[in-house]
Every structure is written in structure tokens, then in C-alpha cells.
Design brief:
With 155 residues, the protein is α/β, with parallel strands linked by helices. It is 52% helix and 15% strand. Strand 3, helix 4 and strand 4 form a beta-alpha-beta unit. Helix 3 runs parallel beside helix 4. The N and C termini lie far apart (44 Å).
């Protein structure tokens, strides 16, 4: 639960985390982007999957939140591309048209969560907070492994 924390219910550990928000609907980007920004997150928005790939090439993100149904490069194709670049970054997929086949494919490709629109602010913030926490744990784990591997080579 996120109650009792600073920034309107967002755990303090996620403040400043970088979120890539992807949706082809400008109003959705604006509303969700504002919600995440008010929670203390650094939000970069992309109005299409290809724009998201460009952002991913330039910036390391703690979490990616993407719509599934988008022209050209949909959310599942984006998830595949994210996994090729970074197998650990948590990806949350959103959809207004839930479909069992798509949900199963999303999970098989490694999506952390499948959010069904409309969802409320609390559900989004909790999902993103959980994703950022996992991202931070993954980073610490990779650094520790790198340190240990570096130490073992010296021994």
C-alpha cells in the first residue's frame, strides 16, 4: 500500500524515477503524464511506438507504461523491442479492449502488469511504484553481480 507516504501517496523511493509513457491518444498521455508527474516521477511521453523506441535509445528508464493498441508499432511489438534492449526494465501494458490472447502474450513476453482502461489514479500509481521498486532491485542486483565478478577476477 502507498498510504502514509509523501507526494500524495507515492512511496518516497520512486520519486524521481524515469517513466516512459506511450499512448497514441494525446488526452490519455496528458492525463496519465500529469498524474505521474504530480507523484514526483520524471515522465517522458511518446505518442507512438516508434517514438518510444527513439526515447529508449537515448534514455534509461525505470519503467515503461504503454498502450497496446497503437498504429504501426503496437504495445506488444514495443515490449519485444524493450526486452531486446533491456531484459529487466519493467513494462506495464494498458488496454481499453482486453483480450485473453493478448494478455497471455503480454505475460509471456515479460510484461509486469496488464492494466485495463479505465483504471483509477491509485491503481496506476501502485502499479508504477511496484515496477520502479523492481527496477531498482534489479539494478542493485546487477551492480552486486558485477562487483562480485570483478572481485573474483582479482583473486
Amino acid at each position: 500500500s502507498v498510504e502514509g507516504s509523501e507526494n500524495g501517496g507515492t512511496p518516497t523511493g520512486v520519486v524521481g524515477a524515469r517513466v516512459l509513457l506511450v499512448d497514441d491518444e494525446p488526452m490519455v498521455l496528458e492525463v496519465l503524464g500529469r498524474t505521474l508527474t504530480r507523484a514526483g516521477l520524471k515522465v517522458i511521453t511518446a505518442g507512438a511506438g516508434k517514438a518510444a523506441l527513439e526515447a529508449l535509445a537515448q534514455t534509461a528508464f525505470d519503467v515503461v507504461v504503454s498502450d497496446i493498441a497503437m498504429p504501426e508499432l503496437d504495445g506488444l511489438a514495443l515490449l519485444r523491442a524493450v526486452r531486446e534492449r533491456d531484459p529487466d526494465v519493467p513494462v506495464l501494458l494498458m488496454t481499453g479492449r482486453p483480450d485473453m490472447k493478448t494478455a497471455v502474450e503480454a505475460v509471456e513476453l515479460g510484461a509486469l502488469q496488464y492494466l485495463i482502461k479505465p483504471f483509477d489514479k491509485t491503481e496506476l500509481l501502485e502499479a508504477v511504484s511496484r515496477a520502479v521498486s523492481l527496477s531498482q532491485l534489479g539494478r542493485v542486483k546487477r551492480e552486486a553481480i558485477g562487483y562480485l565478478e570483478g572481485t573474483s577476477e582479482l583473486a
